[in-house]
Amino acid sequence: MSTLLEIKSSVLRQVQVCPSFRRRTEEEPASSSTEVQEPAAGAWKPGDGVEFFAQMRLILKKGEGRQGLPCPEVLLRSSSPAPTEPVDPSRGLRALTQEEVEMLYEEALYTVLYRAGTMGPDQVDDQEVLLSYLQQVFGTSPEEHAEAMERVKKAKAPTYALKVSVMRAKNLLAKDPNGFSDPYCMLGILPASGTLREPGPHKEQRFSFRKGSKRGGPLPAKCIQVTEVKSSTLNPVWKEHFLFEIEDVSTDQLHLDIWDHDDDVSLVEACRKLNEVIGLKGMSRYFKQIVKSARANGTAGPTEDHTDDFLGCLNIPIREVPVAGEDRWFKLEPRSSASRVQGDCQLVLKLITTQRDTSMSQRGRSGFLSYLLLLSRLLQFEHRAEEPNSSSWRGELSGPAATVLCLHGAQSNLSALQLAVLHWQVSSRHHQTRTLDYGYLLGLLEDMQAHWEEAASLPQEQEGLADSFSAFSEFGLRLLRQLRDYFPATNSTAVYRLELLLKCLGKLQLFQPSFEICPFETELNMDIAAALKRGNREWFDKLLNSQSPREQPGPQRLAGLVKLADAVYEDLQSCYGIYASLFHSIIKIDFFTLTFRQLERLVAEEAWVLTEELSPKMTLEVASGLFELYLTLADIQRFWSSIPGRDSRSLALAGIHAPFLPAVKLWLQVLRDQAKWRLQGAVDVDTLEPMDSSSKHSSSAATASLCFSHMQELWARLAWPDPAQAQGLGTQLSQDLCEAALFYTELLRKKVDTQPGAAGEAVSEPLCVVLNDVELLRKAADQALRGLVWPEGAPGLEGVLPRPLLSCMQALDEDLQREARTVTAHLTSKMVGDIRKYVQHISLSPDSIQNEEAMAPLLKYLDEKLALLNASLVKENLSRVLEALWELLLQAILQALGANRDVSADFYGRFHFTLEALVNFFHAEGQGLPLESLRDGSYKRLEEELRLHQCSTRECIEQYYLDKLKQRSLEHNRFGRLSVRCHYEAAEQRLAVEVLHAADLLPLDANGLSDPFVIVELGPPHLFPLVRSQRTQVKSRTLHPVYDELFYFSVPAEACRRRGACVLFTVMDHDWLSTNDFAGEAALGLGSIGGVARPQVGGSARAGQPVTLHLRRPRAQVRSALRMLEGRNNKEAQEFVKRLKELEKYMEADP
């Protein structure tokens, strides 16, 4: 018993048809491959099953990657560097002449020597370093450098100017009663001569443009500018721009006052009028004259009533302005320590040159052009220092290069937009000569876009910018035409570069409406779509010429066209999984639809032409090639249909299946024969031993399972679209599969018959392996057949197995179940003799030994054999063998009981104990057979006989009648109904039985009617020894007789309450010329009738409700009790049996 208790799901698991089998059998046994002959050209020979299914596996493996829509994570398999993009040195900026190079070099030296302002932390402040760097960039010899330096030093110094943008102020003091102020700014340059002396220790005072100043000295400001007045605000916004000439960069200062305006006449306007009369440099030296001039032109009252309030001032040395300029908030300062001010003012400052004594300036070369040439020179030098063939350079300039460009851009007064345009023009051209990172170019475009609101200031530069856009877009379109070469979908680096390139092209479209001179003849996205279409066609033609040239004969072109179709499918996967989202999200082009429509049409044209050419030349080789080609074409169709909202009926491949039908039929015929040859070869080399320690089936079963799985997968890939044709193909394939399965079991049976059996071996390992093989085959075939569904053509039938396929599955399952039962019977037949021997040992054991000891040899034998079976069989087969052994044990015990009559009760008690112990043994606490199956069938018969054998004769007789009372008619209307009424009359101590009528009796005569009568008797006889049976009159020719006859039986009430006491009604058909026919019987227990269950109180002699009894025939359990009594030799049993037989004769006699 311990064996079954140790059975767990992990031990009894059934090896399913799963990928593990496929992996396990990918490499066929070496002995199998050695027997295979090479196939002749154009045909498959018997014995080629291995090679045929190897080719079939390759076809299926190709289809494994075509399930569902592709994922980018699957396609992007490489992160290696992207392919090198084409470059053309002629696409860069034109080369400079030697004279232009010399002038550019002097321009750069002039920029460094006459720099002004403060250098930033990231800039190079060492002049010698900058000069040495320029010497390297231009490749100048020391002598040439010295000469250039001499010329630059002799040149006049540039004229400097300060650009000031007064942007806004915040948090100013409120000077007006309404809680606000009306602020304006006055600003100018304090020359070196106006520098204040050191203040005394007792008082701190700063210069200011002070109204009503009583100082008699001249005002030190050489130019005063004012902003507009912003009314009623403490956070004014001006955004006004001013330009001041600088005499001495090292000593001049910018001074700014903020005032609260209180005059009726605008002081700003007064300043402007005065400047118109006097001029900027000849402006009055005294601020009060400006005030007086304003008063004279106004209508205000006394000056003292209209003085402006001071809000704060700023003093900024020119030398402290950064070289690159600055945009900064400055904290307002008081005029003296006694002043009370607050707030900040935002200024944008930039130090520029207005006149430059250089050759380029003298020849009218603008600072824009000078910067462009200098940037190009520096970019080429800086990129040359990078590693060759690097496409990841992002334009990172060295410190000296960035410093020189910053100085030149600031001195040339180039705006942020101009600088962005220059960097784009130079870098985009340089990219076409030596590849840059597209992220760098995209950043330049974004920088230009951020300042594009200033585009109105670029009238002269638009043409050059438009040319750069045209050149870059032309370069990008050329790359997109060769998309698959330069941006392969499997390379994540290349795909990222493509994404950045598309973003650059997308940015170009944003600038297009802003150009007066349009750089694009058509919309850029239309040009991109045209380039993609042209690239698709060029890629397809190149592939067609290399794989399947049209000048080759059809059979030779076929293999190449298969490769071409595969390449098209893979390309469409890349388009959908990688490229489509990029093109759609960035430049709004449906690249996948564009490509699919074009390539699908091209490959369809080639397929139609080739199939028409090959149809009259159909051979096995051609059919194999056409079959593989069709699978790929069908995959292309399904790929389109799997995308939501796409309809394949409009494709050029729609209906392409029709010319492939003959090839598919021929190929499936070859598949049928090859499957049988493959199975034959697998069984021939099979040793009927488990493949390994983890499996319990042999190698041939794994091969058969794999073959069926391949057939099912192939059908799924075929997915024939025509329902009628699919039904024919699917029906044939399912029949072929069933035929192959039965062919395999026949081969196994022959194989195991030739195996020599070990002498005295009760459990045959080869038989166990064969049984496991059959079970594995059954499951594999069932799974494969369920996969061979085809469209029925009617709606709502998805997932429903077609009727022919279902019939085929059921028939095959029955055949394989029958085969499994046959092998199981063969396996257990060797144990029959041993089981009978151990059962006989139990029957012959003397009463003196214990029951456990008597049955111990049987349990030990079963435990040993089941341990072997458990180790050799899978769960389903172990259950089959257990069921067979259980039936063998029950039959052996029944035979033992039949061979021993009139023995002691202990004999039957021992077998009853044995039976229950075997039930527990085979159930094994739920790990073995279920109790429902153990306690069914032969068990019930055996258990009944054991129970009856243990009963006394009277108990058996009572059981006979109890069984009749327990009977229930399963077919109520088959034998008819009988209505009776019974009650017990206590006063007379008699039982009254009234037979009322019957209905729907069986027609037992030739005329379709019967002549029924009813026999009424009480039982058991030992309870009513003096009571004789009675019967009604015969009712002729009726199936619904009415009797209304009353019978009395004088019996005590105590006898009616005894166990099994009942009244038995037997309906017979009276025949005059032959024996009476039995029509049915019914029994009514006496314990429940009125007067017996409870005393009769009042009422008539016929009180009580009628009872309708359904007639039936005696069941097996009633007969078993009778047979038990027939086997007993005591007088009472023999008399009861004899009386029943006499009663039967009496019933058969004529009345």
TrEMBL record:
<dbReference type="GO" id="GO:0055038">
    <property type="term" value="C:recycling endosome membrane"/>
</dbReference>
<dbReference type="Pfam" id="PF06292">
    <property type="entry name" value="MUN"/>
</dbReference>
<keyword id="KW-0268">Exocytosis</keyword>
<dbReference type="GO" id="GO:1905413">
    <property type="term" value="P:regulation of dense core granule exocytosis"/>
</dbReference>
<dbReference type="GO" id="GO:0006887">
    <property type="term" value="P:exocytosis"/>
</dbReference>
<feature type="region of interest" description="Disordered">
    <location>
        <begin position="22"/>
        <end position="43"/>
    </location>
</feature>
<dbReference type="GO" id="GO:0005886">
    <property type="term" value="C:plasma membrane"/>
</dbReference>
<dbReference type="GO" id="GO:0099503">
    <property type="term" value="C:secretory vesicle"/>
</dbReference>
<dbReference type="GO" id="GO:0000149">
    <property type="term" value="F:SNARE binding"/>
</dbReference>
<dbReference type="GO" id="GO:0031902">
    <property type="term" value="C:late endosome membrane"/>
</dbReference>
<dbReference type="InterPro" id="IPR035892">
    <property type="entry name" value="C2_domain_sf"/>
</dbReference>
<protein>
    <submittedName>
        <fullName>BAI1-associated protein 3 isoform X2</fullName>
    </submittedName>
</protein>
<dbReference type="Pfam" id="PF00168">
    <property type="entry name" value="C2"/>
</dbReference>
<keyword id="KW-0967">Endosome</keyword>
<feature type="domain" description="C2">
    <location>
        <begin position="141"/>
        <end position="300"/>
    </location>
</feature>
<dbReference type="GO" id="GO:0001956">
    <property type="term" value="P:positive regulation of neurotransmitter secretion"/>
</dbReference>
<dbReference type="InterPro" id="IPR014772">
    <property type="entry name" value="Munc13_dom-2"/>
</dbReference>
<keyword id="KW-0963">Cytoplasm</keyword>
<feature type="domain" description="C2">
    <location>
        <begin position="974"/>
        <end position="1100"/>
    </location>
</feature>
<dbReference type="InterPro" id="IPR000008">
    <property type="entry name" value="C2_dom"/>
</dbReference>
<dbReference type="InterPro" id="IPR014770">
    <property type="entry name" value="Munc13_1"/>
</dbReference>
<dbReference type="GO" id="GO:0098793">
    <property type="term" value="C:presynapse"/>
</dbReference>
<dbReference type="GO" id="GO:0032588">
    <property type="term" value="C:trans-Golgi network membrane"/>
</dbReference>
<comment type="similarity">
    <text>Belongs to the unc-13 family.</text>
</comment>
<dbReference type="InterPro" id="IPR010439">
    <property type="entry name" value="MUN_dom"/>
</dbReference>
<feature type="domain" description="MHD2">
    <location>
        <begin position="852"/>
        <end position="960"/>
    </location>
</feature>
<dbReference type="InterPro" id="IPR052095">
    <property type="entry name" value="UNC-13_domain"/>
</dbReference>
<feature type="domain" description="MHD1">
    <location>
        <begin position="627"/>
        <end position="748"/>
    </location>
</feature>
